[in-house]
Amino acid sequence: MNTMNRLMRVIPLCLLIGSSLAPDRLLAQEMDHSSMQMPARPEPSISSTPKVEAPEEKPASPPVSANPHAGHGDATLPAARVEQAPAEQVDHVAMGHAMPTSTAPAEPMDHSKMGHDMGAMSDESMPMDHAEMNHAAMNHDVESAAPLQPRTPIPALTDADRAAAAPPSGGHPAHDNSIQQYVLLDRLEGWDADTGAGTAWAVQGWLGTDLNRLWLRSEGERVDNRTESADLEVLYGRSIARWWDVVAGVRHDFNPGGSQDFAAIGVMGLAPYMFEVQATGYIGQSGQTAARVEVEYEMLLTNRLILQPMVEVDFYGRNDERRGIGSGLSTAEAGLRLRYEITRRFAPYVGIVHERAFGRTADFRREEGEDASDTRVVAGFRIWF
Predict the structure, then answer these.
(1) Into how many domains does the chain fold?
(2) Which residues are CB-contacts of 65 (< 8 A; sequence separation ≥ 6)?
(3) Structure pTM?
């Protein structure tokens, strides 16, 4: 009986205590999880730049807490009953995340590898990787510029410097007033034709300085041991330009038809395109006038094999029957000779020569029983010393 009385007193007390605790437990079990929101990750602010999409990230694991419902932002729960354990630090480098997980300043990005236009980006919003930039090409270093004046002044040129720079001449004077000489036997040749065997020569030489020279020139021809023509010129030459001399003197003809003399004046030298030219006018006895023009050219087939064409023409002012000379264009001779220089001073050659008379000169030859034209094959040598 006593026991029953005690139970009847304890049961109402337990019911009263249980009713005060039940609402809290029911609310904890019946919370709406759909209304829960996770705090948003702060995004770095980039102004005036195209959006850079980072690689896809795996969601970070929620922090572990003693209460599974800790961190749920339900305003109906008392703040004192929400116990949230402090979140553990997550190692994002080990997880492979490209973007930072905190609001700290972003790490410098290598824009040279991303293809961004550096001119359109702001230095404040996107740090530049100056290590990758070629500052040497920007010429920022003013001190590295070349000085306008040399550090060491260049000394003035002296006569001793010029003498040391000039190679020794080897005892051969040049461009001075020493006496020199030169002799060229341009043609010494022979032939054997139907009209007879013959020989011919053409020689010239000079004695003097670079500016003033005494010239000797001679041409002639012999057929069947008889001198058909021969002349000798003694001339004074003065250099008037590079490669050109003016000459003046006398000419003496031995044959044909007896000897006669002429006063001579002319020019000789090297024309453009390497043509060797001799042009001379003559005034003879009894008012006879004449002119001779000779042009030669040397074609180097090899360093020693040389082909030399030559043309020579003679003009006279009036007829001279005693010497068989007609007025106007008297004779013309064209030759083509091929020589081989065994040494620079000696060269044998072979060639072909054609000679022709014109006008009254041709008539005079026909009256003497000779042909007006003649073609012959010649052989000879050329020598100079």
Answers:
(1) 1
(2) 71, 83, 84, 85
(3) 0.56
Question: Tell me, what's the pLDDT at 358?
Answer: 96
Tokens (6 digits) for 220: 């002639």
Residues of the chain with pLDDT under 70: 1-8, 10-150, 167-176
Q: Can you point out the beta strands (E) in 138-179?
A: none
Count CB neighbours of 85 within 10 A.
12
Indicate which CATH number applies to the domain containing 244.
2.40.160.40
Q: Concatenated DSSP letters for 328-384?
A: EEEEEEEEEEEEE-SSSSEEEEEEEEEEEE-HHHHHHHHHTT--SEEEEEEEEEEEE
Rounded Cα distance, 230 and 222, in Å: 9
Q: How far apart are CA 146 and CA 21, in angstroms?
A: 92
Per-residue pLDDT, 48: 45
What is the per-residue pLDDT for 348? 98
294 located within any domain = yes
